[in-house]
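Section 3.1: Structural characterization of target chains.
Under the original work plan, the team committed to producing a structural model for every single-chain target entering the pipeline before any wet-lab resources were allocated. The record below documents one such target. The sequence was received from the expression subgroup and is listed exactly as submitted; it comprises 96 residues.
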Amino acid sequence: MARDISSFVRAVCLEKPLPIKVKLETYQDEALSLLQEIRQDVLRIGINIDQSSRRVNNTTDYHEMQRDYQKMRDELDQLTGQIRQLMTAITPNIRL
């Protein structure tokens, strides 16, 4: 941030970038951490869906497909819980 008004006006007039100093609150740190976990989970679920799709096209073992489906369903339930945690961390005063 600019130290004073004149520094700010000078930077804007000369089209210089304004450095922004971001200080994260505790809930923001927690939210970022949860977002990283959710991102990893979504990527893993996507890989599982891709693998299952390949199996569906190459197999007739429907019991195996059913197990795969249940595994993905469990992962989606876990992801839903993480998203609820994230929403609670971001909006601590709002009841979800």
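The mean pLDDT is 77.
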